[in-house]
Amino acid sequence: MDTLDIARWQFGIITVYHFLFVPITIGLSALVAGLETAWVRTGGEKYLRLTKFFGKLFLINFAIGVVTGIVQEFQFGMNWSDYSRFVGDIFGAPLAIEGLLAFFLESTFLGLWIFGWDKLPRPLHAACIWLVHLGTLLSAYFILAANSWMQHPVGYTFNRDTGRAELNDFWAVMTNKVQLATFPHTLTACYMTGGAFMLGVATYLLVRRRTPDADRPMYRTAVRLGAVVTLVGGLGVAISGDYQGKIMTDVQPMKMAAAEALYDTEAPAAFSLFTVGTLDGSQEKFAVKVPRLLSFLATGSFDGEVQGINQLRAQYRKTYGQDPGAAYYTSGDYTPVIPVTYWTFRLMIGLGVLAAAAAALFLWVTRRGRAPTGRALVMIAAALPLLPVLANSFGWIFTEMGRQPWAVFGLMTTANAVSPGVSPGEALTSLIALTLLYGVLAVIEVGLMLHFIRKGADPFVEPPSPTLGRPSDEPLTFAY
Amino acid sequence: MELTTVWFGLIAVLWIGYFCLEGFDFGVGMLLPVLARDDTERRVLINTIGPLWDGNEVWVLVAGGATFAAFPEWYATLFSGFYLPLLLILLALIVRGLAFEYRAKRDEDRWRRRWDTAIVVGSVVPSLLWGVAFANLLRGVPIDADKEYVGGFFDLLSPYALLGGVTTLLLFLTHGALFIALKTDGDIRHRARDLGVRVGVAAAVAAVAFLAWTQGLTGSAGSAVLFVLAALALVAGLAVATRGREGWAFLGTFVAIALAVAGLFTALFPDVMPSSLDPAWSLTTTNASATSYTLTVMTWVAVLFTPIVLAYQGWTYWVFRSRISTRHIPTDPGTSSSPAPQPVS
């Protein structure tokens, strides 16, 4: 393997790994903030107990999300230095602003939230976790703006003298139409993930025998909160995803064709639910199709024309050259790996729909004060948090793989983006070290999560009145 | 002033903030097995930085992001060139960050001992390697006409670079010990102060040697003044530490680190990454920079939001200003509870 392959594997592995934790962080920070606010407003003991219980799970998850995020920022320079040189003028700005606006906010106010139970007045303490959530939103906005620029470059000129893309309209980058579709889609998926996490954990605690009967109403509250958030989030994901599909067809028609393995332009085009094809994806042997659905998904009209891979490939060759050999273009068929795009697209949608359906089921079985029992529900509960988590991963794999061979669509191929000075040995060292470490950390993280989930919520303890930094001989209410 | 110069200055400020702030929490991490005699004392040390270390670490993330945005060529050459040291720093920061959060999550000795090791290793490695990296920046590294680093890993380990690493290591140890002296009470406070002074003397010797060497290599009049002031601040800090004035002593190491880093950046300017092969191939603030449009946008964002960040981060230090000691450590780690107070040690 050369440095390029290794760097691509590393990007895929550590980015997907990082994004297992990010949506839980974003979704759960909002849910924990909501629960604490409910406690501050009503004084209801169950809200505080749930705040602390899910807060603890949130922190276990947050810690690993943060440390794996550091690698994300540094690897652009380490593995993709030619990319960094080419787009730094544009791509670096959202990254730097993300650090200044979002990371400081998250880390500072999370510290205040964790250690501030006996220091800050209650409303201020609740405000801290809301600010953490605001930080996660800002972070998502800026990093998605950077990614959207790679999908659909706007607000720049290509400078022939410096050989790089240069920013000329920052506002255009911040309001890129791809970004305006991607941000709501990703965000609602994050809420869905947080909701499904809460739903799964709380259902397990509600249904299992060991749970004290007095605690069941509390867990039922969490089940219903999680279910409502998952369902509403799921609705948002569907609506924004539909909109995003049309934008994608507009700016990256090849990605839509690849998602569908649509080789020849069709009008109207059918959506295939399931296809068995040859291994390279070039021919289908068996397919289940819904007529006209793809036309609607791609264009908003049931008769719309959807361009096929073959026609687009010819068009791209005309636009970008057969083999220009110049700095930022390579020869190639301009086509992503079809089976990957086809299946990740379907898995993303299918798992998301399953999660929303499960949420609806739990709303039904907990209706009008009911507290269900049964092993089947525990099994569903255990699987539930995984559904949106996996859907997120497949969604990102689809988005990034579907853009290939481009790193920046129409401007720079991935092959040209890699660091020329990094040896395969260095890249492999990094790939192996990070993958092994991440593997070990995953085992530790899941072990800790399960440990605290099994323990359930701690008994209610009235938080002390705040001292705001005054010296006190009392033990700290929270200490590592 | 040119915007490129402004951004060189802002990146210097970010590194100063990073070394002054995370410097002491690295020091606390490294001193965990040295200063603490039992688990409760280790927890006292960890809790002095518990609410603060994460915010401190963000400074380096913003420094990295700002370098990417303001000097893309510098970011690309530096991070791909110093590949393996940076990988080691990343691995160290990962295990260290998790250790603080996860250590208290299980009440088992073996679990805690392993995370303690992670904290120590995670603090030693960056403390050493940041110094090595900065020394290499100042001395110059093999960079070719295409702005690519063409050296290997071992090119980064010259005697000068290793002295740089030892200097940051000793400075952070001193800084951390004095921070512990400032933030704790009881027996541990006195031990930390004594250790801070003793390590501080070694740090002062290393720092003077390193800064003098740097001044000889690439220094200017401005850097000489800053280096001398830095040395004076360090010595003054150690002197007041012996008299038990921990606040002033900590301020001394804080100012010493700030002035030393400011001096290093002054000595570096207008290069950002000099080439040891040919001065014409050096990366400078102008040939490595982003466009003036990008720098203008970034300047506005920095001007508007930096004061807000400084205000709330400063406020955090105020909220957690009280000293802690073994009697403040609850028996049940990582949870809110009201346990019986422990006897005052």
UniProtKB/TrEMBL annotation, chain A:
One Gene Ontology MF term: heme binding
Keyword flag Secreted: no
GO biological process, one term: aerobic electron transport chain
Name of the molecule in the record: Cytochrome ubiquinol oxidase subunit I
Originating organism: Nocardioides mesophilus
Short name of any one Pfam family annotated for the protein: Cyt_bd_oxida_I
This protein's UniProt keywords: Cell membrane, Electron transport, Heme, Iron, Membrane, Metal-binding, Transmembrane, Transmembrane helix, Transport
Tagged with keyword Nucleus: no
PANTHER family the UniProt entry points to: CYTOCHROME BD UBIQUINOL OXIDASE SUBUNIT 1, CYTOCHROME D UBIQUINOL OXIDASE
Protein's membrane topology: Multi-pass membrane protein
Transmembrane stretches, start-end: 12-33, 53-71, 91-115, 127-150, 186-207, 219-239, 343-365, 377-398, 427-450
A GO cellular component annotation in the UniProt record: plasma membrane
UniProtKB/TrEMBL annotation, chain B:
TM ranges: 6-36, 82-99, 119-138, 158-183, 195-214, 220-241, 248-269, 297-320
Keyword terms of this UniProt record: Cell membrane, Electron transport, Heme, Iron, Membrane, Metal-binding, Transmembrane, Transmembrane helix, Transport
Mode of membrane association: Multi-pass membrane protein
GO cellular component: cytochrome complex; plasma membrane
Subcellular location: Cell membrane
Highest taxon of source: Bacteria
One Gene Ontology biological process: aerobic electron transport chain
InterPro entries noted in UniProt: Cyt-d_oxidase_su2
GO molecular function, one term: electron transfer activity
Keyword Membrane: yes
Pfam families assigned to the protein according to its UniProt record, in alphabetical order: Cyt_bd_oxida_II (PF02322)
Main location: membrane
Xref: NCBIfam families: cydB
The family this protein is said to belong to: Belongs to the cytochrome ubiquinol oxidase subunit 2 family.
Name of the protein in its database record: Cytochrome d ubiquinol oxidase subunit II
